[in-house]
């Protein structure tokens, strides 16, 4: 088990390395001189007034004139020591900014993730048990609707309805405590729930068709008891795997949702850093999201391994 | 007559099973009437697809949703076909139990074997876990499972096919049911395991005086376990009677054919194949394959004829 986890951690490091290289070099390929974009973004609306001297200062300040490989190498060396460089636009260490903003993304993401699971898994079980009845059909139609509209649009519609028209909830930001988290959270949940409901439903249906469930019924158990005793452990693996992917999606999707709702998390940070060609900041954000993805997948693998007796009983043993 | 009534465990009257499909309804079991007596071991013999498992599952009310069961079945005088799921569930496990087919798939791969046997006890007899565990262990011992008590803590994938089958036997019988449905207990087992499972099963049901309905296509299993044998063909009973009568002196051409097809009797297979259940031939269902068929067989559907001594045959030309 420890060997297994060790392997996963090593491969995670490899993935992070590749992600950082891709982010760095792709960012350099985007149009626009880094110093120029940075300055116009920092001093908004001053595009015409920027002189060559300003550009030189900016280039000098962030070593932008050195070869890309050297720039990347230096960043990498720093990163290994826990220093992700300085943000061009915020003029602060990237690490500090992440530490400041990440909690907000985590609060929103975890809340949406766990509330979504708490709703989606029981609903998936219900739709499987009462398949092809009214509840199943209603949820199926609802799922198709919810998953076929883009998150940002859904967010805007929710704002229009609940904030502008009904005035129940704040439009954006997070100044009103719990009230302000409702809409972004609901938007993220609606994005992940349709997938989770469907995966749970098909997994439950699969398990319900198994012989051991019939045998459980023959022993005198009700469907509910049989699902509890024999169903859960067998139907969870696909649900867990899909949930881990959704966790990643929530982190990545937060860029859009946080921008729509002006939520002060790393999504917002990421959006601004792309607009300003703030390479260091961008690296920090992308790596954080990638790390979140990897961690959630490792968690899923470990959970699944723990659920399957074959992994810890070491293969088959014959008499 | 009065005594006859009390000894009767099941009385099944004209039981029919349909499967609703998109095209038309398929009749899997046709007008099945039979009594099963207390303490007897009845064997339902027939080839794959003749409806024998469907009949068994119909008795236990475990058929899928698209199945429709008509007719009556009385368990100790209680009608069960129309009985609610809730009421019937109380009989399952304690009174009426099953040893399902498919040792590999009928055990939950994520639960320890001992616990799967224990489950039934925990559900029906409100005893503490220590007592339950002891009962399970002694039962596993009677089934001659090796590595006790450690084997109770093993998962199904750690056991061999024969061992898994014995775990299933234990799980079926642990609550001392009155009636036990045993569905293909030797499916997928090699000869050695087969004999062992059957011998152990026989000893167990004799000790417990359990009534057994054994479903099999294996002549030897029927021979070693059954008191009475029912031969099924294409969804209906073609012959039944005492074991020696049916297995050694069969009357129906189909039973005769089955006997002749055994290796020790010369491997002479019956011509043709049994019909799919949606293409049942008119008249006698066996007539297209019957060597003695006449014009009457193709036109008229024969009823069961009583040959005396509890023996009935579905053939116009049967003589005891």
Keywords:
heterodimer, A: 319 residues, mainly alpha, MetI-like fold, 13 helices, 0% strand, B: 320 residues, alpha/beta, Rossmann fold, 2 domains, 8-stranded mixed sheet, 4-stranded antiparallel sheet, disordered N terminus
Q: What's the pLDDT, averaged over the residues of chain A? A: 85
Number of helices of chain A: 13
Sequence stretches where pLDDT stays below 50 over 5 or more residues of chain A: 315-319
How many separate domains make up the residues of chain B?
Answer: 2
Secondary structural class of chain B: alpha/beta
Number of strands of chain B: 12
Order of helices and strands of chain A: HHHHHHHHHHHHH
Query: Could you report the average pLDDT of chain B, rounded to the nearest whole number?
Result: 88
Proportion of residues in β-strands of chain B: 15-25%
Strand content of chain A: under 5%
How would you name the CATH homologous superfamily of the largest domain in chain B? P-loop containing nucleotide triphosphate hydrolases
Q: Regarding CATH, which class of the domain at 96-278 in chain A?
A: Mainly Alpha
Task: Quote the distance from N terminus to C terminus of chain B.
Answer: 26 Å
Order of helices and strands of chain B, N to C? HEEEHEEHEHHHHEHEHEEHHHEE
Largest sheet of chain B: 8 strands, mixed
